[in-house]
Specification:
The structure holds 2 protein chains of 2 kinds. Chain A is α/β, with parallel strands linked by helices. Chain A is built from 6 helices and 6 strands, in the order αβαβαβαβαββα. In chain B, the strands form 2 sheets. Chain B has a 7-stranded mixed beta sheet. A two-stranded antiparallel sheet of chain B has the order 6-9. Chain B starts with a helix and ends in a 7-residue tail after the last strand. The chains are: A alpha/beta, B alpha+beta.
């Protein structure tokens, strides 16, 4: 009996060490959250899935300085408003070859939830599907309500105060006239 | 009295500040902006040129670009090809860098000179020293193309083609198609497109 218990103990210890190792990259970092390739229509389908009161869609890129500067404010927005049914969809427009840089950036900013990668080469179709008034410049932020209706659009760099104001407007006015 | 002053500030200053960065983009049918068409800009060859100086007998292609943007870099060989080809067809070409190098040192004049040489630009690549030329066009990011006919009316604005990342997979060569239609006297097949790009790093309005 004692031998069985000892054996079980060894199995448990080895098993947990192994599963911890599987969740780690060689440098011991936590496994990155998935980066899901999407077209504009696939992104909108997710926005309209009814799983959030507010969805903030932010188009960004690692090489886009204003995107990088506003990024922490959006991460903070998600953290502060998560419990109120607000989610943030970060959509990287980096080329696929830059995925390692995208992952590093997301990890550095503590983004542990799934994000997205623009996977539609035709920019014109991508842009016009999301918003006919968007010029294509980055960053761009779209704010949708629970029914997936676009309520606010902001092109260019924003900050926490701006994003909070727009999100609160949607939270307080879920069904505008 | 104080309230009246602040009212006037709001009426005059705020719209000017808003205009500084958000002039509506030129659209097909608009004229070459009169306020900036004669502005002299320093070319990589050392001379000063305006858009008027480079206007061609068949039309004019104005390209807002820069040295640093990955989208520009992905398209740059094709930009050089289209610009060099367009010039030979009688379309005047000018590429304009409106970025403030203080915000991005890679957009310095010296790097512009190197880039023009490396890529074999046969057209001017000039410095928009106040970023006002970009403002007048409503240009927001790089690269952006504006094709004018011989009379100076905009006939196409937008992207070079439909695939920055993969030249082999291009289906629509928007700028080339627009130039060919212009030269043939035909309607422009697609007059306006959009593309992702890097925001222009405007200099502060003086």
């Amino acid at each position: 009996m004692r031998r069985v218990a000892r054996l079980l103990g060894i199995v448990l210890v080895v098993g947990s060490a192994t599963s911890a190792r599987l969740g780690q990259t060689p440098r011991g970092e936590r496994q990155a959250a998935p980066i899901i390739p999407v077209t504009a229509q696939e992104l909108l389908n997710r926005v309209r899935d009814g799983k959030a009161q507010v969805t903030v869609v932010n188009l960004w890129a690692t090489f886009c300085q204003p995107c990088v500067e506003e990024f922490p404010d959006l991460v903070r927005l998600e953290r502060v408003y998560r419990d109120k049914g607000v989610r943030v969809f970060f959509v990287s427009t980096d080329f696929e070859s830059e995925l390692p840089a995208v992952r590093r950036f997301l990890q550095r900013h503590g983004v542990t939830y799934p994000t997205f990668l623009k996977a539609q080469d035709d920019d014109n179709a991508f842009i016009t599907t999301l918003h006919p008034e968007w010029s294509g410049a980055l960053p761009a932020t779209f704010i949708y309500d629970a029914r997936g209706r676009l309520r606010h659009f902001h092109e260019g760099k924003g900050d926490f105060a701006l994003f909070e104001r727009l999100v609160q407007d949607v939270l307080h006015n879920p069904n505008p006239q | 009295m104080r309230r009246r002053v602040w009212t006037w500030v709001g009426v005059i200053v705020v719209p000017m500040v808003v205009w500084a960065q958000t002039t509506p983009k030129l659209k097909p049918g608009d004229a070459l902006p009169a306020s900036v068409k004669d502005v002299k800009m320093l070319n990589v060859a050392g001379n000063q040129l305006s858009i008027t100086d480079v206007r061609g007998p068949k039309g004019t292609l104005v390209i807002f670009s820069c040295n640093s943007c990955p989208w520009v870099k992905a398209w740059e060989t094709r930009i050089a090809e289209i610009g060099n080809w367009a010039q030979k067809q009688g379309i005047g070409v000018i590429m304009i860098n409106s970025n403030d190098p203080a915000k991005n040192p890679e957009d310095s004049y010296e790097v512009m000179q190197q880039r023009a040489k490396e890529r074999g630009f046969e057209f001017p690549y000039v410095v928009d020293a106040t970023s006002d030329v970009a403002r007048a066009f409503g240009a927001t990011h790089t690269p952006e193309f504006f094709l004018f006919d011989a009379k100076g009316t905009l006939v196409y604005t937008g992207a070079l083609d439909d695939n920055a990342r993969n030249p082999e997979a291009v289906k629509e060569r928007y700028v080339k198609n627009a130039i060919e239609a212009l030269l043939a006297g035909q309607p422009i097949p697609v007059a306006q497109t959009r593309s992702i790009g890097c925001t222009i790093k405007f200099r502060e309005k003086t």
